[in-house]
Automatic annotation (TrEMBL):
Pfam families: Clathrin, Clathrin_H_link. GO terms for cellular component: chloroplast; clathrin complex; Golgi apparatus; plasma membrane; plasmodesma. GO terms for biological process: intracellular protein transport; receptor-mediated endocytosis. InterPro entries: ARM-type_fold (IPR016024), CHCR (IPR055358), Clathrin_H-chain/VPS_repeat (IPR000547), Clathrin_H-chain_linker (IPR012331). Gene3D superfamilies: 1.25.40.30. CHCR repeats lie at residues 175-265. GO terms for molecular function: clathrin light chain binding. This is Clathrin domain-containing protein/Clathrin_H_link domain-containing protein.
Length: 265
């Protein structure tokens, strides 16, 4: 078979060579070498490139393997024929891989996400959901497939471009079964490192609603950071009487410094 293939190729009978390779026993000719061979043929103006002929022949026989799928997709992406990719994926003609997802991501994020999911390229799926601000889907998807993302890294990534999204994600984590995967104090410090005091306050006010004794440190912390930066916010928190476990002597001193003498008593 290999010899016959070489002969056909030497005679520039590319269509016949493509058919022979497509039907070779156990796919022995369906290798990167064969792809490279068709790739190396100079393309005449107005003619179908032999490589496309080869892939076209394979597609009529069934599904492409991972390497073939990647190389064909490279061709059609370069020719801006994304619709062909969509059709082949819908017909399950391409084998999905992380590399294919990376290639398609350069032209279409939605299609890339579908490929990552099919290829089970889990970190890429999680990153794609984060980019789309679909934080709830990260948690659902991870639970479905039994994957534990690096939640701290994810939160840091979201925080860089979307502080409000980071609050939402942190609050979603705080409601996860089995407890929050990242310590509340660590989350708070991530916001504070970026000087996002309002965001840190919003997060803490939400998780501290139950007013639990074990949260005395965080109650003190949210009052401290606001007494130093936004005394009116600290004043409102104290006026609401929502906390009863904070460090009273410490907060009393800071109230005095901030000019909140009534609160200092």
């Amino acid at each position: 078979v290999v010899q016959r293939f070489q002969e056909l190729f030497a005679q520039t009978k590319y269509k016949e060579a493509a058919e022979l390779a497509a039907e070779s026993p156990q796919g022995i000719l369906r290798t990167p070498d064969t792809v490279a061979k068709f790739q190396s043929v100079p393309v005449q103006a107005g003619q179908t490139p032999p490589l496309l002929q080869y892939f076209g022949t394979l597609l009529t026989r069934g599904k492409l393997n991972a390497f073939e799928s990647l190389e064909l997709s490279r061709l059609v992406v370069n020719q801006n024929k994304k619709n062909l990719l969509e059709n082949w994926l819908a017909e399950d003609k391409l084998e999905c891989s992380e590399e294919l997802g990376d290639l398609v991501k350069t032209v279409d994020n939605d299609l890339a996400l579908k490929i990552y999911i099919k290829a089970r390229a889990t970190p890429k799926v999680v990153a794609a959901f984060a980019e789309r601000k679909e934080f709830d889907k990260i948690l659902v998807y991870s639970k479905q497939i039994g994957y534990t993302p690096d939640y701290l890294f994810l939160l840091q990534t979201i925080l860089r471009s979307d502080p409000q999204g980071a609050i939402n994600f942190a609050l979603m984590m705080s409601q996860m079964e089995g407890g929050c995967p990242v310590d509340y104090n660590t989350i708070t410090d991530l916001f504070l490192q970026r000087n996002l005091i309002r965001e840190a306050t919003a997060f803490l006010l939400d998780i501290l609603k139950p007013n639990l004794p074990e949260h005395s440190f965080l109650q003190t912390k949210v009052l401290e950071i606001n007494l130093v930066t936004f005394p009116n916010v600290a004043d409102a928190i104290l006026a609401n009487g929502m906390f009863s476990h904070y460090d009273r002597p410490r907060i009393g001193q800071l109230c005095e410094k901030a000019g909140l003498y009534i609160r200092a008593l």
